[in-house]
Write the structure tokens for this entry.
Amino acid sequence: MMEVSTYRRLGALEPTEWDGVDQGMRLAARHKFLAAVEASRINDCRYYYPVVRQKGNPVAHASIYQISTEIDMFGGPGLRAMVRSVRRIRKKFMIMRTVECGCPVALGNTIVFRPGSDRSSVLELILRAVERIAAEEGVDAIVFRDFDDDEVPFYERVMRSWGYHKIHNLPSAHLRIRWETFDDYLRAMRSQYRYKIRARMQRFGESGARMFVMDDFSDRAVEMARLWRNVYDQAKEYQREVIGPDFFVNVGRIRGTSALMVEINGRLVAFSLLIDDGETLEQLYCGLDYEINRSAAVYFNMLYKIVKMAIDRGYRKVDFGITTLIPKLDVGAEAVPLYMFMKHRQRVWNWIAPRIFDMMTSIPTERSRRVFKDGG
């Protein structure tokens, strides 16, 4: 007999109990990371943690949060400009509360099953718990986030019977690591791409900038939040989660996170927040001083450094995340589809809302470029 209990605070659960469900779970699904996110006062989020137990032992859990969502957030620039003009008069136009399964600051599925468990039965208990949360909070829209092609068949089979619709998220940019050294990586490139990298690396070197990695970056939180806000304010593809110094303090102390920092004359001018996710090096957020970026090609050089780190440290893949796709394609990454499952609790709206959301998600047509000589 299995049963599900939902907790409003992750602190009510012991880390060993939560993490013991599957020792191989992603960092973004682990107790320490989710607790740091919960403590970081992100937007208007409220958090919930369903845990499925069998004979008193946890066999699965999920990370759930409630947040205000702008339906047009994935739309093209024209649509978003139109919607924002309407919001000057009607502030809540095309904004709805959603209950989501995932992590508000990281991509990826955060449902974790104990190996060997009856995943279909367990998932149905999680679905029941999430729908109970939505009903109790008076929220109609439910979203389960960020499934890749390999995960979709199982989840779609179960969730379709519960009335969920598969919709698109923006694709994530992945680079498969298959070189022994960074020089091998450069030699594998077609000349036009290799030339651009070397020219930008030279510009960066001549700028006097210094790039280095910090494992504990909590004492740079205020500077990082300021630089992150620059990027957020300039974003044209996606704007939702607003993070401040609290987030960088809390996440900066977690083993498995690090920050690639760029300084000029002792002043922080850029960073990239990285997560060690087993065989994958994941880029989570970045921040930039745009004036320095233009003169020293800082953003591009951070991408190159991330590739070098992945090669040197033996990762199999770099996940550069969603948005700003073109520079990532230029370093050899490919756009990998991500999907979500959405349901509206009102039957008529469940036919309409997922289709509207899916139509507004602007999926790029260019998925890769012929960066390497072998076409890979």
